[in-house]
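During the reporting period, we have paired protein sequences with backbone structure tokens. One record among many follows, to show the layout:
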Amino acid sequence: MPILSTETQAAVSLFHSLADSTRLAILQRLGSGEARVSDLVRELGVAQSTASEHIACLRDCGLVVGRSEGRQTFYAVARPELIDVFSAAEHLLEATGFKVDLCSTYGTEARER
């Protein structure tokens, strides 16, 4: 296995954190504004425990921050650069004709096997 620089290892970790469909959906939703776990449950159709688990992971990674208001916590994307990453990914997908989704290794069909 090749020796990776610290920066490359960190990038691998970042992209790995974004590779989960639920975490990605949560981050995309938070890109449009703050949300409570209950909002994410309702809007994304995931279980409360699932949403909470992924929010905790994203907070640990420094990608999401929480703001308490009374007994509620509102979550938001921690850094606006993350929204830029999503925008760049959308442009890249469009530019390649979404070919990555047809990839036999990483595409939809490969994930469903």
